[in-house]
Recover the amino acids of this structure.
């Protein structure tokens, strides 16, 4: 612990300084000044006691004690004022530090490579950093200041006792040991328990979301999942509860032991003081001040030990936060040296292989495709054949394990991801239903250009959708908020398609863009794509083979490899997998129309 504390304190003071220099300086400076007045007040008390215990009439003794008493009162008042100022600065620091820590976390989570989100270890670390690390960053700062305050208080009493008589110093230490031991032991127990249950807790949160969120609510009922989910929840919660109960028992035991030892230590201190007094080592006034100083010192010590304890505990979580930041930083793709090419005449994926983290088999194996400017290239194949994965690689969202993706000879591996993605529109199969207004759902962070917005929305057939919304473009598309509205699956898909057109990118990637569209909307969309989406280059993934008839080239993927390629006519002539699937779909229509 002694090894780790300086690191936590150092990191805490650094983040605190970055959050607010003024409040950090005030919190530390005012506490330091308050410590000085603690020592001053105690020493002045000796003066009061000496005057009171001196020989002579009571009235005279009280009168003689008055100047020292005034000094004690002044020191106490000043100390109180300084402590109030320090505590205000500390209170102000809390939200500022928490905000900074949280922002840093999101700064990283929005930058890390996409595969990090497929990694369990990363997820666990992220959850711990978010749920405990961020709130505890403020606690670490608060406790660091408290530790310094406590230490200053103890130092002030120690100096006072040392000045009164050096022999009194060890007595102060004796009272500190038992409490310190108990507090640190319990903190560590709690942290170890937290780590033991962290996976179970994550699963419990997931189950809580499934039982109490709007989206899965219908399916929970439709599949009568209630008992099943509650059973799963009980299992996980039972594990967590058992660990908590064990910890509660162990902590109580340690605390009781600490209190008993603490009581014994205090009794020993009083016996020692009595002995020193009776052997004439110290005077009565000194013994009186020593009792007061030890009491004051004990209060500072208790607060110091408690703060060290809390600092240690919060520091462990804060350590998790720092470790996660380090982990995430290592997973931020290095920004390539070259800027993205302004455009392309040809995009080539050359023998690209890609494996998801933790997966034994590659999702793509030596896949080569060519996309020329202005072409519509279709990727088809059975479920799990690798179409979406290839699309994500083409979009620069994943980087190949081997092989290259080049824009006119420029390898994308050397290009800044964000600059490249500016030139690409991807409409994912599982596009996000952003809890934003209809307008923001289309423009997605880009400046609003009303003319382009209207065009994109019309092209995607989303104008009817927006026209029917109570507040048009300003309607919030989330039912969980006041005046929020929800859309049907197909209506959402139209909004998502409008996003692609609004982005005005060189390369447009549509992954199953028509799965939820009605026949008319689907026809209109493919007509638009057939007209080469106004000269743009399109990669189209779809299971509706009738829609790929007009593509310039079709790649048929099978188990992560390119099985066939060519135009529709060539592939039909080749009579391979594509021709088989095409006939299967066409026959299904024929059967229905003749039935
Ligand atoms: N995040 C992931 N982590 C691990 N494996 C994944 C991940 N996403 C996809 N896979 C696996 O990679 C393979 C290719 O998946 P992909 O989504 O590219 O297929 P697809 O051809 O788009 O399928 P579909 O037609 O069902 O959309 C599958 O075996 C799938 O299980």
């Amino acid at each position: 612990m002694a090894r780790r504390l300086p690191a936590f304190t150092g990191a805490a003071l650094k983040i605190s300084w970055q959050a607010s220099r003024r409040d950090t300086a005030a919190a530390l400076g005012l506490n330091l000044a308050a410590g000085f007045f603690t020592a001053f007040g105690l020493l002045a008390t000796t003066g009061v006691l000496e005057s009171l215990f001196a020989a002579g009439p009571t009235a005279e003794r009280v009168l003689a004690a008055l100047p020292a008493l005034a000094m004690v009162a002044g020191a106490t008042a000043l100390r109180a004022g300084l402590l109030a100022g320090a505590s205000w600065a500390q209170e102000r620091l809390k939200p500022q530090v928490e905000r900074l820590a949280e922002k840093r976390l999101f700064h990283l989570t929005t930058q890390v490579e996409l595969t990090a989100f497929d990694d369990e270890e990363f997820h666990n670390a992220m959850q711990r950093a978010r749920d405990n690390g961020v709130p505890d960053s403020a606690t670490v700062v608060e406790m660091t200041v408290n530790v310094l305050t406590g230490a200053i208080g103890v130092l002030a009493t120690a100096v006072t006792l040392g000045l009164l008589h050096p022999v009194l110093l060890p007595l102060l230490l004796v009272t500190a040991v038992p409490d310190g031991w108990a507090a640190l032991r319990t903190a560590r127990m709690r942290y170890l328990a937290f780590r033991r249950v962290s996976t179970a807790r994550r699963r419990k949160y997931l189950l809580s979301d499934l039982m109490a969120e709007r989206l899965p609510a219908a399916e929970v009922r439709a599949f009568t999942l209630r008992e099943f989910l509650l059973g799963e929840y009980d299992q996980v919660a039972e594990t967590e509860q058992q660990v908590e109960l064990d910890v509660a028992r162990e902590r109580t035991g340690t605390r009781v032991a600490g209190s008993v030892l603490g009581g014994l230590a205090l009794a020993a201190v009083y016996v020692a003081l009595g002995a020193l007094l009776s052997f004439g080592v110290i005077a009565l006034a000194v013994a009186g001040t020593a009792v007061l100083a030890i009491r004051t010192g004990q209060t500072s010590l208790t607060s110091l030990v408690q703060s060290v304890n809390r600092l240690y505990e919060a520091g462990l979580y804060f350590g998790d936060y720092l470790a996660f930041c380090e982990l995430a930083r290592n997973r931020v793709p290095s920004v390539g040296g070259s800027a993205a090419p302004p455009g392309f005449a040809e995009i080539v994926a050359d023998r690209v292989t890609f494996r998801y983290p933790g997966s034994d088999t590659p999702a793509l194996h030596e896949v080569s495709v060519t996309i020329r400017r202005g072409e519509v290239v279709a990727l088809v194949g059975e479920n799990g054949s690798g179409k979406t994965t290839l699309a994500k690689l083409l979009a620069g969202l994943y980087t190949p394990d081997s092989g290259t993706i080049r824009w006119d000879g420029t390898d994308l591996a050397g290009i800044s991801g964000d600059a490249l993605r500016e030139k690409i529109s991807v409409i994912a199969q599982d596009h996000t239903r952003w809890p934003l207004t209809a307008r923001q759902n289309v423009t997605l962070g880009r400046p609003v250009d009303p003319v382009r917005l209207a065009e994109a929305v019309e092209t995607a057939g989303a104008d009817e959708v927006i026209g029917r919304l109570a507040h048009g473009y300003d309607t919030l598309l989330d039912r969980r908020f006041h005046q929020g509205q929800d859309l049907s699956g197909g209506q959402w898909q139209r909004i998502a398609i409008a996003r692609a057109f609004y982005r005005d990118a060189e390369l447009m990637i549509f992954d199953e863009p028509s799965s939820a569209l009605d026949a008319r909307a689907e026809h209109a969309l493919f007509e638009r794509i057939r007209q080469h989406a106004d000269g743009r280059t399109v990669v189209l993934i779809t299971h509706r083979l009738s829609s790929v008839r007009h593509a310039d080239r079709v790649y048929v993927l099978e188990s992560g490899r390119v099985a066939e390629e060519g135009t529709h006519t060539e592939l039909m002539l080749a009579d391979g997998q594509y021709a088989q699937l095409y006939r299967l779909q066409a026959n299904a229509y024929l059967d229905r129309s003749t039935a």
Remarks:
- The chain is about 65% helix and 10% strand.
- The chain has a mean pLDDT of 86.
- The two ends are 79 Å apart (CA to CA).
- Residues 344-423+507-515+541-579 form a domain with the Rossmann fold fold (CATH 3.40.50.300).
